[in-house]
Amino acid sequence: ILVDDICDSGGTLCNAAAALKEQGATAVSAYITHGVLSNNAVKRVEDSVMDELVICNTIRPTDADLKSKKLRVLSVAPLLGEAIRRIANNESVSKLFD
Description:
By secondary structure, this protein is an alpha/beta fold. It is 35% helix and 22% strand. Strands 1-2-3-4 form a four-stranded parallel sheet. Strand 3, helix 3 and strand 4 form a beta-alpha-beta unit.
């Protein structure tokens, strides 16, 4: 499992996935907070040994990128909504991460 804050072109992630597979990993998934996905990043992932790229919807992927079988997008809406509710009710936001 690879974890990073941003995936821009995807080159570093694809290289890391290849290195992990060369060392015997049977599957490689990357979990990214912000999928910038520029310069054909999704095509690069499609052509790589990476099994799955999981991103949050903080930046909307293009319609073409969303067709990729290797791309999964998770919504941050429930987390942000709960944080807003807690702030409005003067409750702890940090408890969301306990």
